[in-house]
Automatic annotation (TrEMBL):
InterPro entries named in the record: Co_F420_Hydgase/DH_bsu_N, FRHB/FDHB/HCAR-like, FrhB_FdhB_C
Residues in Coenzyme F420 hydrogenase/dehydrogenase beta subunit N-terminal domain copies: 90-163
UniProt record, GO biological process: chlorophyll cycle
Residue ranges crossing the lipid bilayer per the database entry: none
Location of the Coenzyme F420 hydrogenase/dehydrogenase beta subunit C-terminal domain: 177-334
Name the UniProt record assigns to this protein: Coenzyme F420 hydrogenase
Superkingdom of origin organism: Bacteria
Signal sequence bounds: none
Lineage, top ranks: Bacteria, Bacillati, Actinomycetota, Actinomycetes, Propionibacteriales
Amino acid sequence: MMGRLPDSIESITQARLCTGCGVCAHLHPDRLQMADVPDVGRRPLPIVGVTGPTTGAGVAACPGRELSHPVGSLDDAPFHGEWGPVLDLYECWAADPVLRHRGSSGGVVSALAAHAIEAGIAVGALQVRASQEDPLRNETVLNRSREDIVTATGSRYSPASPCERLDLVEDAEGPCVVVGKPCDIAGTRKAAEQRAALADKVAVTLGIFCAGTPSTEATRSVVADLGIDPDTVKRLDYRGEGWPGEFRVETHDGRRASTSYADSWGKLTKHRQWRCLICPDHTGEFADLSIGDPWYRPVTDEEGGRSLVVVRTERGRRLLESALAGGALEGAPLSMDKLPASQPNLESTRGAVWGRVQSMRLLGMPTPRFRGMPSFRLWWKLPLRAKLTSTLGTARRIFVRGLKRPEFEPREVGSRGRTR
Ligand SMILES: Cc1cc2nc3c(=O)[nH]c(=O)nc-3n(C[C@H](O)[C@H](O)[C@H](O)COP(=O)(O)OP(=O)(O)OC[C@H]3O[C@@H](n4cnc5c(N)ncnc54)[C@H](O)[C@@H]3O)c2cc1C
Ligand code: SF4
Ligand code: SF4
């Protein structure tokens, strides 16, 4: 898809095309710092005293602005390339009962990261976890042991910018695992294409399926709906300890409250950033392995969690086979049809994205460039009502929600150097 492409980080964010991955802040640490913009998400803000727009490496690596598969690379891919490169499909779970129980689905991401370190494939794993200072926010760390990895199990359905800490990978003494949402992994890959020092240190990338990132305020409002003051929360889990498990909070004075995964996600999803609604890659097409929920059949909280694993590259296949052979993972191959059957909503969303982007372009809005990511056929498969919602409905939404206006009031942030 071609459109008016913004040419600086500031114009990308103002046009609501930023995913919040943080890769531009990694590439321009003296100009940009990631910060949580209320009701929006994490955004790269100019550091006080920086003048002029940020262009160059960060723009080239930005996954919000552009995503593309090389011409012809998906010619032989299953599903007409609409699910990206798919070499094989597996259903797996962590052999370690702690990782499986605490994990979002089968604890497979955590088990793969731990196996990579213990088998000497990697020295660490770049992962997002709840901030130790403020459990309603997230932080990115380089975990170096199974004990560290346990602290990062589970999904954080709130803003996180793992790529802002790619410096930890670049400065590590050996190769690392990088875990992230599809946009985080695409940003990592694009940055590695520009920087040999980073490429040398990325052992393998693990992408988690992602339907979208809700704002921090969305989490606060789900907590408030449970009768808990968000400022008193000591620990917050979005799911896990069951499959899918419940949204659970615990306060400093020991009070606990919870609600179902369906109820919490139903509320959070209304607060996803706009860029997520025009995201064509919800399944980590640029990762070596991508992992989600095998929801091709009903599941219960009583059964042990399982994860769907999409093998995207030979490098990913080697890690998966090593983890299965080494006893870190259990599971087996799955027939390809279980991929769309597991995530029918993500398939229809990709169709709707085609219609939404056309509407944005017709209304003169800056649009991202997506190449080699077929989606028109999925739009064509949508029922008439969904086709109209994705086009005319989007046009209406653009005016009603004022989406042509900048996403937030520009402002500067505190200090030079990376946020720790
Ligand atoms: C915002 C969001 C939306 C999602 N939407 C879907 C969906 O529509 N369909 C689906 O099947 N799955 C979705 N997932 C993924 C799913 O929740 C599980 O993460 C996935 O099944 C892997 O489970 P696991 O038990 O193998 O991973 P675990 O072993 O629990 O490990 C999870 C890993 O994800 C990392 N992580 C958690 N939150 C974030 C974050 N916000 N940003 C970057 N990294 C993070 C952690 O650091 C950890 O390494 C979503 C996850 C997120 C964060
Ligand atoms: S998507 Fe990532 S690289 Fe692009 S502007 Fe946002 S934080 Fe920066
Ligand atoms: S929906 Fe797409 S753009 Fe949004 S956070 Fe997920 S992968 Fe990134």
